[in-house]
Amino acid sequence: MKSQRILADFFRRSWPVYVLSITFHLVSNMINVFYPKVLGAFTDKLAGGELTRGLVVDYSLQLLAIGIASVVFSGIAMYLVMYVGRTFERGVRGLLFRHFTRMGERFYAKNGVGKLLSYFMNDVTAVRESIAMGINQTANATMLLLSAMTMMIISGIPLYLIGACVFPLLLIPFIVVYLGPIIRQRSLHVQEALGKMTETAEEQFGGIRVTKKFAVEPIMNRRFGQTVDDIRAAQLRLVRVSSFFQALVPFLGTIALIIALAFGGYLTIAGRLSLGNFVALTLYVRMLMTPLQQIGNVINSIQRSRASLERLNGLLSQSPDIVESDAATEADLSDCAIEIDHLTFAYSPSSEPVLKDVSVRIEPGATLGIIGRTGSGKTTLMKLLLRIYDPPPGTIRFGGEDVRELTLESLRGQIGYVPQDGFLFSTTIRENIAFSDRTAVMGSIEDAARQAQIHANIDELPERFETKLGERGLTLSGGQRQRTSLARGLIKRASVMILDDSVSAVDAVTEKDIIDSIRRERHNKTTIIIAHRISAIKHADEIIVLDDGEIVQRGTHRELLEQPGLYADLHAIQEEGSLHATGTSDS
Ligand SMILES: Nc1ncnc2c1ncn2[C@@H]1O[C@H](COP(=O)(O)OP(=O)(O)OP(=O)(O)O)[C@@H](O)[C@H]1O
């Protein structure tokens, strides 16, 4: 199992620190077990009337030395084990993040950000707690148990008495076998409920502006409240069984103590056990209580962390849906034709195709315009060009090479894709524009901003390009965000540029300025423009009209205007709109 591998890999790398930590614990415990022995000897001297002032000082100094040495060694051991735990946490979080970056859109469509965050926070922490404290506490507790037992034997306490005292402890494995799976199952429910809560919180915060505009805060509170209630219910179910388990283990220790008192006391009265050995026995049995409690805690936390490990395992075992072929070659899109050849695509085998028998050839340096009703498959076609989803083999080729045979980095690195709703990061405008090349000089950042017609707006901001955007760039208007995202695409000067409805949120005059500057800048460079407004695509070398996943018309702007069909209809509607608005036509 992969979860086991996470641990195995980790232990392989960090075992020396573990060994060191366990050794320090061992030393600390070995020192500790002399404590009852000194007290036993003290008692014997006291009972025999041999105790002198010098001996009292002697015994006190011995106890002080035992205390200091034990604290120093156990302190270092504790630090080391915390260090390993944090190293594990850091390693697994890195592993998870790398795994997430490899996953495709399908994965993110299924797993919300909040849910993924809960793996980072809750599950990793649960495993860390148990591997950090778990192993060391077990080792510590086992050593303490063994040393206490050894010391009992060395001290001359009869074996049958020791056997009778530790007998109740033999029940522990049976309790573990019975209660362990229940604890694990309930922990799994807790982790799932926590994941649900972070998922809901993330969604609710993401949609807070919509919520406020619709004044539906009470509904939002109710929904969130439900997830918190679910967590409490799941946690209480877990606490009920784990508290019972945790209390049961030391309870067995108490029974052992009672046996020691009763049986040991009887033997002492009968003169078969010295008073010193009786005191030592009760102290040793009392000493067993702490390790027993620790073992209870550890078993509890291991069961809980196994549930988290299973969740992490489930996540890490999912492989990315887009996999680079072993023989993948570097793409060179600088001067190549793009061929889409009888492409039919459905998002899942059971659903209807979103694209049906689409064939287009884009010559090197040409501009393709795509128009069509909403939901007609325009963005899907672009996602297939970028291989965000896998097209059927041989249906998309760049310079004759199947897109599936190209390395993803070289393919995506040479395509500048500007989506309609470009996500902006909560950093400066400069860093957002220079996203694909952090070393871009200010001159080219400003040029890209000018082409995207956002420069003037940026100039008005207090810190111009150094202005920090709020989360997701929400401090800008919709149109400003869109143009900043456009500048980010333009600065790439990519061999192939895709503008996916990227000027939909700007007014007609700004759109014209943007399209004009893109035409100048991308003269002789392959460009695909998707738009709902004809004005944005009418200069393209070829325009295709998509309707319900099919190309229903193709040609130049003039050719399409001459045919009856969707394009001419759209043109007529849009012309009418612009006539109403301005009293002029721009066709
Ligand atoms: N990830 C997805 N999983 C399943 N179906 C999807 C997915 N993305 C889009 N679709 C469906 O595919 C169809 C085409 O969507 P697409 O986004 O390609 O249309 P579009 O032409 O770009 O629309 P718009 O003009 O509104 O942006 C729609 O019916 C949509 O519901």
UniProtKB/TrEMBL annotation:
Keywords recorded for this protein, A-Z: ATP-binding, Cell membrane, Membrane, Nucleotide-binding, Transmembrane, Transmembrane helix, Transport
Membrane topology: Multi-pass membrane protein
Primary location class: membrane
Listed SUPFAM superfamilies: ABC transporter transmembrane region, P-loop containing nucleoside triphosphate hydrolases
Boundaries of every ABC transmembrane type-1 domain copy: 19-304
ABC transporter domain location: 338-573
InterPro entries from the UniProt entry: AAA+_ATPase, ABC1_TM_dom, ABC1_TM_sf, ABC_transporter-like_ATP-bd, P-loop_NTPase, Type_1_exporter
One term under GO cellular component: plasma membrane
UniProt name for this protein: ATP-binding cassette subfamily B protein
Biological source species: Paenibacillus methanolicus
